[in-house]
Amino acid sequence: MEFKTNIDTATQEYIKTLNNQFSFIVSHINKFQLCKHDLLSVQNGHDIVNMGVYALKNIKTHIKALENVLSDCQDFIKEIEDDLSQPQKEDGFVFHTKNGMLSYKGRDFIQAVRKSLNDSKKQDLNKQDLNKYTDKQDLNKQDLNKYTDKQDLNKQDLKQDTYIIPNFTPNYKVKIPYVDSLKKIPPMFHYYDGDEVNPKGMYCCLTKGVYAQVPFPDVIDPVKDHEKHRSVKCKYETKEECNYQRNKIAKHYNSQLRQCNFAHKGENLVKVGNSAKCSFIPNFGNRETLLNDIKKVCLDDIKTVLLYGLHDVAISAFWFHNKPESITLIDLDKA
Q1: Does residue 211 contact residue 205 with C-beta atoms inside 8 Å?
Q2: Which are the contacts of 262, defined by CB distance < 8 A and separation ≥ 6?
Q3: Hey, is 5 helix, strand or coil?
Q4: Which end of the chain is more exposed for a tag (fewer CB within 10 A), N or C?
Q5: Regarding beta strands 189-192 and 201-207, do their DSSP bridges make them parallel or antiparallel, or are they unpaired?
Q6: Between the CA of residue 101 and those of 94, 95, 96, what are the distances in Å?
Q7: Which residue, 209, 186, 200, is CA-closest to 330?
Q8: Over 75-138, what HEC string results?
Q9: Closest CA relative to residue 319, chosen from 172, 163, 187
């Protein structure tokens, strides 16, 4: 009875929380529809949508999890009912021995089986002593196989062929390595300690001979940051040339010196977030908030992020296929 009472209480509190959250969002939407038409109202509207989408995603996650839990519970109920439908064991299934210890029928048979298994293990241990000589021979064979192992490694480099990628541009052939099992594909990213030319960090290999250091730029919300400062490279490249050209234009038109919001050579580029990738966190991936944001997104959000990201990486790798020279790309977040 107490168990049922606890469940009823928890369920009522959960439903009450959902109702309160729903009423809270609806009341804000009703107030929003009466507000002024200005930029602040636009921002408030986006905040309401983000709050609602975040709540909806969590509710969907709870629904899926609850469906699985209820299904498991129903299966367990069925197991209990099946057990209860079976006839009870006859009396004496578990009994007391003369020494007052609990025992069960068939114990003598099990002990006999265990004894035979222990005897076979002893025989296996004796066989290990006899196999020492053959083990040494196997070690010698490993030394002899070093040359053939190197040949196999070289063969792996040759295991490349030209393929037409499904669902891509028709008749576009790509020369890439081949594997007969997904488990043989190595991880995409690796940590490199760096050298005299390349800094330490996370790297990936786009195609044979082409390596790239993974950048981690600041990601801005395009709704909140309308200027998108330093998200595009300046056409004048250097800051000095940009200042010269802007001063020249200001003097020619007798106007004020305009501010340049573009990134100049050597400055850090800023990545513009996209609400199509992650609707309620458009700047998902920003370093300052990543640890908190990554807890809020779900698998569907990550799939959308990969839709854009993996496609961009793939077509970049295709571009390098026609470039014979090797190259290491670093400072991708620099203008």
Answers
A1: yes
A2: 230, 232, 233, 234, 235, 242
A3: helix
A4: N
A5: antiparallel
A6: 10, 8, 5
A7: 200
A8: HHHHHHHHHHHCCCCCCCCEEECCCCCEEECCHHHHHHHHHHHHHHHHHHHHHHHHCHHHHHHH
A9: 172
Secondary structure tally for the chain: helices H, strands E:
8, 10
Strands 94-96 and 102-104 come out as antiparallel
**Residues recorded for the chain:** 335
| Cα separation, 193 vs 175, whole angstroms | 30
Nearest residue to 230 via CA among 155, 118, 335: 335
Query: Residue 320 and residue 213: Cα distance in Å, rounded?
Result: 16
> Which strand (E) or helix (H) includes residue 139?
helix 132-144
Q: Which two tokens stand for residue 63?
A: 């629904």
pTM: 0.51
Q: What is the pLDDT along the chain (335 residues), one digit of tens a residue?
A: 566 667 778 888 888 888 888 888 888 888 888 888 888 888 888 888 888 888 888 888 888 878 877 887 887 787 777 767 766 555 555 555 655 555 656 666 666 666 676 666 666 655 555 455 445 455 444 544 443 444 444 444 546 666 767 767 667 777 788 888 899 888 999 999 999 999 999 999 998 889 999 999 999 888 777 667 888 999 999 999 999 998 988 888 888 888 898 999 999 999 988 888 887 788 888 888 888 888 888 888 899 999 999 999 998 998 888 777 889 999 999 98
The SS3 assignment for 71 reads helix
* Backbone phi and psi for residue 334, each to the nearest 5 degrees, phi listed first: -105, 140
